[in-house]
Every structure is written in structure tokens, then in C-alpha cells.
Amino acid sequence: MNKGGGMKKMKYVLVTGGVVSGLGKGVTASSIGVLLKACGLRVTSIKIDPYLNTDAGTMSPFEHGEVYVLDDGGEVDLDLGNYERFLDIKLTRDNNITTGKIYQAVIDKERRGDYLGKTVQVVPHITDAIQEWIERVALIPVDGQPGPADVCVIELGGTIGDIESMPFTEALGQFSYRVGAGNFCLIHVSLVPVISAVGEQKTKPTQHSVRGLRSLGLTPNILACRSTSALEENVKQKLSQFCHVPAENIITLYDVPNIWHLPSLLRDQKAHEGILGALNLPGFVNVAREPNLKEWTSRAEFCDKLLEPVRIAVVGKYTGLSDSYLSLLKALLHASVSLRKKLVVDWVPASDIEDETARENPDAYKAAWKLLKGADGVLVPGGFGDRGVEGKILAAKYARENRIPFLGICLGMQIAVIEFARSILGLQDANSTEFDPDTKSPCVVFMPEGSKTHLGGTMRLGSRRTYFQVMDSKSAKLYGNRGFVDERHRHRYEVNPDMVSSLEDAGLSFTGKDETGQRMEIVELPSHPYYIGTQFHPEFKSRPGKPSALFLGLIAAACGQLDPLLHAHKIPYGMAKKISLYQNGNATKFAKIPADGIYSNCNGVHA
């Protein structure tokens, strides 16, 4: 309700990008959400991806980064993961709009005859469908409270001027007029490059970008300029003059030690005042004029001060692009910060530790094994296809035999079972039917409800319940001795239930199963300091200050802190409440660390 007593109207913040892609629109949109939430507003988010795919499920991680999985089974863009982590919300598959979804919905209506003989066109039918989708999804509660949010933050993927995004820009131009001036705020993220020869901040790219934006019927309220340092005052004045944006509404998104600083960076430049003013929100009850970001500021500063490293080797297929494992990296970071360690990630291409590489490229082979053997813990993430599988099996074997803390996720759990069957049960041909359909020892088999002809949306997806079978197990203790846990899944293959008894007789323990008892969800090696595999993806529900239980266990084991954690029978989720314990005033501040505090050996690439 507003002060006048009438029903409140939904407010919309649109974030667009110009000049080049990869400016950080997703993190900016997430930080804007944090800022508004800190002002006492309820926030939801929508990501628009102009590609023709129905969803992100069939795209290679090299194409578009990781596929993020939601509770409802939606396979979506990784930016929805940023929204969920920053805002601590649970989104739905409809919060990710794609060209494929919109056109499919319109064509389905046309086939049903809903358009009553009209010629179906981009304008008005596609543009109307986009606007109706936004209005419908914005009303879905995502924060666990009843009723719709106060503000919906919309991120338009791609760059202004892209051919594929034209229907969306047209629809959003109409939408801004439809909802009214006091209910719509446009924030344009652009680039202000610095030419090294003269050291001058150049405004021309942003000027052209804003001109293109205006020609499409969209007028920016706020300019968020990416640059290496804060914008000089004369540069702000120039942008204000040529882009018709007040100087106080031009903010700089300059480089910061880690992305948890971004909400504070926006607040310090009074971005919230520009947004609240554009949305006519000061008239709302309980809207704070000054956002409370104490928890975010404390966490960001604490992360900067971490000095004692913990090295985790990630043995995967897509190690050339860290965005392929973005949620996994965030989960490792959340856990390491909670345990007061500086995360160092060593990327190990799985195929590089295979015997074939030793023959063809011995230098890459030696370098990969050196990284693996120098790590405090080993993590094998999920993946599809047979490339690098034997390398992952070798990594699991190394961790098992040398008692190195190990966490295998999805395929990582499956290869741990295969390795155990080969090494301990003596089944040398043990394999997954995904990689060897004719194996005589199928440790991993195709799920009966899957599809081998249609790849999109045909896996076991979304939140499913796992019931603990052994309460005295590490996994059960890490999850707080609960009887069950709900985690997100994305897989077509699973451990063969016919081989479970043989594996357990040999020492493996399946400590978590589904409600039928036929699906293996968690596997442990009780005789090992920390050797756990999960069929589900625990990284998707990790949050800053609320680390995933099994990632926390991995980092704790890698640091020699697992026993105190297990004896406590609970996870220190309340890092925000304990943050004052970390601020002892005598910690040395590290001068400059990569974004998110994640160090990487991958040519400086970090998450």
C-alpha cells in the first residue's frame, strides 16, 4: 500500500548494455537489486536472452557459460544464479525469457486460433507477448513471502543495436510508456575506455550507444559506466551534456577487489537516490532513504583481508572458461570465506592427466599432474560426453589412494563409483553406459524416464528430495543431522542399483537415496578423511554467508578443520551475525586481489 491508501503498482528497473558485451550487466542488475532490498523493498528479477533457443539447457558451456538449474527444473542463464545468490530468492523458469519461448508461445496461440484470423506479426503480437510475459512473471513471489514484490529488475541480454534483440527493445519501449513514467527506470551500462597512449577517458562510445538507445524509443535515467577508475568530473559533465542524463545520475562501475563491493559502490555514488526518484518511490511506506549494507560491506572487506590460502584442484572438461563452472566457484568461495581462507583454484583439464596426453604432450601432462598433486582438495564437477572422463577417473583414484579430500558432483560422483569398481572390485571394464553402451560391468545406467532422441528438458531436473540412510555419516552431519535434504538435479544417468550391494560390501557407503531407495544420491568412503560424491548439484543453493554444506566440508577437510565442524553437528551459516568476530582490527589488508577473491592459474581468468 502507498501513503494514499491505494494498491501499489509494480515498479520496473530495466538494465541494458552498450558498446560491447561482457560489461557485467548481470552483476550490476544483481547489485541494484541488493541496493533496493537494503532500502526495505521486495525485489524480483527477470533475465531476457534474445537467442532463439527455448532455454539454456542444450547449449555448450563454452557458448554461454554454465547452465543454471532452478528449483522448478528450469535450465536458465547463469545470470539468474547471480540474482538468486545476491538477493537470496528462488526464481522460476519463466523468470528467464528467450526469443524461443516467446515465438513458441505466439505460434501455439496462432495454431489454436486465438488470433481469430489476424495476420500474426512481430508488432503487435510478439511485442505484446513480451510485455504480457513480463507483467505476469513480475507478480510471482520469489522471496518466500506472500504477494508480489515491489520492484522487478529486468536485464536485457546482449548489446543495444543487436538485430536479434530488436523485438525486445521495441516491446520495452512500448512497455515504458504503458506502465507510466513514475514506474519505469532505465539504467544503461556502457563502456568508457581509457586510451593508454594519452590516458584519457573516452566518452564517444557511450554517446553513440545512448543515441542508438534513444532511436529505439528508450531513454536512460541513469548511466552506469564501466571504466578502470572513477570518472573524472569533466567526463561526467560531457556525458551529461551529450546523453541528456543529469550528472548526479552518471555513476562509475570501476574495478573493485571483489564483486561484493558493488552494492556499496552504487550506494556511495547515490545510485539508489536516482532509482527511487525515477520510480517515485519515496512516497512508499517503509522505504529507507539510505540503504543498510552493513552485512555486505563487512563481508566484502573481510574477503579482502584473507591471506591464508586453500588450494582446490578443479578437474573438468570446460576449464578454459571459468564461467562454465560459475556456481561451483561461488560455492567454493562462500565456503572458504566462511572458514577464513583465501581460495586458490587450480584448473586441471581432465584430458591433460590421461596417458594419451603423456605421449602426445608431455609438458601439459606434467603441468596438470603438478597442479593436482599440489592441491589441498580435489573437486570433479558434472559434465556430458566422454572427453576427459578417464582423466577424471584418474583424479578420483589419486584422491582416494592418497587420502586427499574429494568432492564429486553429478558425473563426478559417477566416475568415483566407476573408479572404485575398477580398483577395488577388480572390474576392469566397469563404466557408464553413456560412454560404453556394451560394457559388461555397467556401474552407471540410463534413467528409464529419460529420452535419447530429444535432449532439451528431458533430464531429471530441479529440486528433489534425498533421504539420509546413515545418520552417522559425514554428509548427514554436515547437513545438520536432518532426515532429508532438498537439492537440485540435472542428469540422465545414475548409479546402477543392481551393483549397489557389491559396492557397499567392498566399503563404499551410499548414505543418501531418493524416496524409492533405488536412486543413489550421496556416496561416501567412510575410511577416507573426506571422499564424497553427490548425484545432485549442491552449488546451486549456496549463498554468501550461507555456504553449501558439502562445499564447506571439502574446504574444512582441505584445511584440517573438518573434525571440529562435524562435532558441532551444524554448519556456521550465520556468518553475517558472526562477522564482527572477524573484524579484529589487526588483519593485514591485501592490496589487490582478483574479482571475488578467487585466485586462478588459468591465465588470470577468474569468476
TrEMBL record:
Pfam families assigned to the protein according to its UniProt record, in alphabetical order: CTP_synth_N, GATase
Transmembrane regions: none
Location of the CTP synthase N-terminal domain: 11-281
Matches recorded under SUPFAM superfamilies: Class I glutamine amidotransferase-like (SSF52317), P-loop containing nucleoside triphosphate hydrolases (SSF52540)
Biological process per Gene Ontology, one example term: 'de novo' CTP biosynthetic process
Protein name as annotated: CTP synthase
Species in which this protein is naturally found: Populus alba x Populus x berolinensis
Role of this protein: Catalyzes the ATP-dependent amination of UTP to CTP with either L-glutamine or ammonia as the source of nitrogen.
